[in-house]
Design brief:
alpha/beta, eight-stranded parallel beta barrel, 8 strands, globular
C-alpha cells in the first residue's frame, strides 16, 4: 500500500497570529508543501480560531481544488464546525476531540460515548461527499465504534508513542507501537482506511511508516518547527525520504 503525506500548516497561522499580522501566510506554506512532495494539506479550524481562520479555509479549499490535491479539514464534533465542513466540502474531514484549555489535541475521540453525536456528524459530512475520518486511539473498541458510526477512515493517535521515544522509554514505546500495529490491522479488517498522526518527527516516523496498513501520515508541528532552520521544502523532502524508505523496507521484507 502506498503511503501518503499530509502536511498540517496550522502553526504557520500560529506565528502569524502571534503578532496579529498578515504574514506568514498559511496559503503560501501550503503551496510550498505541495511543490515539495506533500500529497495533501491538513488544517484544524479550532472553535477559538487560535491558528487557522475561516478565511484561510476559503483560500486552502480553492488552492487544493485547483491543484487537484486533497484538503483534510480537522474539526470538533460541533454543529458550527460540521456546518463549515458541509459548506466547504473538503475532500476529507477528520473529527477530533477539542477542549479550549488544551495546548494541542491530547488524545483520541471517544466515539463510544459520543456515538449518536459522532454518527450524525459523519452522516452530514458524507452526504456532501466528504471522506470522513475519526481521530482515535488504537483501541479495538473505539475502532469498531468508528466503523459503526459510518466513518471511512480512522486516524490513529501516535502522540503517546512519540512521547515515549523522546523520553527514551524503550519498553513503553515498544508496547505502544505494538498497539498501533494491532489497531491498524483491526481497522483494515473492518474495511477502514488507516491514517496516523500527532507528534511525529524524524526520529519516530520510520516505525509508524513501516506499519503496512497505514495509508497516510499527517504531520505538522515538527515540520513547521524544522522549517525555521532548513526551510519547509527541505523539511518535507527529508520526512518524505524517511517514510518512503521505511515503507520500502516493509515491502521488501514481505
Amino acid at each position: 500500500m502506498s503511503l501518503r503525506l499530509g502536511v498540517n500548516i496550522d502553526h504557520v497561522a500560529t506565528i502569524r497570529n502571534a503578532r496579529g499580522a498578515s504574514y506568514p501566510e498559511p496559503i503560501r506554506a501550503a503551496e510550498l508543501a505541495l511543490a515539495a512532495g506533500a500529497d495533501g494539506i491538513t488544517a484544524h479550524l479550532r472553535e477559538d480560531r487560535r491558528h487557522i481562520a475561516d478565511a484561510d479555509i476559503e483560500l486552502l479549499s480553492d488552492l487544493c481544488r485547483r491543484r487537484g490535491r486533497p484538503l483534510n479539514l480537522e474539526m470538533a464534533v460541533t454543529d458550527e464546525m460540521v456546518g463549515i465542513g458541509v459548506r466547504h466540502r473538503p475532500h476529507a474531514a477528520c473529527l477530533v476531540p477539542e477542549r479550549r484549555e488544551e495546548v494541542t489535541t491530547e488524545g483520541g475521540l471517544d466515539v463510544v460515548r459520543g456515538q449518536n453525536r459522532v454518527k450524525d456528524a459523519v452522516l452530514a459530512l458524507r452526504a456532501v461527499g466528504c471522506r470522513v475520518s475519526l481521530f482515535v486511539e488504537a483501541d479495538p473498541v473505539q475502532i469498531a465504534a468508528s466503523a459503526e458510526a459510518g466513518a471511512q477512515v480512522v486516524e490513529l493517535h501516535t502522540g503517546a508513542y512519540c512521547d515515549a521515544v523522546r523520553a527514551d522509554d524503550a519498553d513503553r514505546a515498544t508496547t505502544i507501537l505494538d498497539r498501533l500495529a494491532k489497531g491498524a490491522v483491526e481497522a483494515h479488517r473492518l474495511g477502514l482506511e488507516v491514517h496516523a498522526g500527532h507528534g511525529i518527527d524524524y526520529a519516530t516516523v520510520a516505525p509508524i511508516a513501516a506499519i503496512p496498513q497505514v495509508a497516510e501520515l499527517n504531520i505538522g508541528h515538527f515540520l513547521i518547527g524544522e522549517a525555521i532552520f532548513v526551510g519547509l521544502p527541505e523539511a518535507i523532502r527529508r520526512m518524505r525520504q524517511l517514510m518512503d524508505a521505511a515503507r520500502l523496507q516493509t515491502e521488501q521484507a514481505a
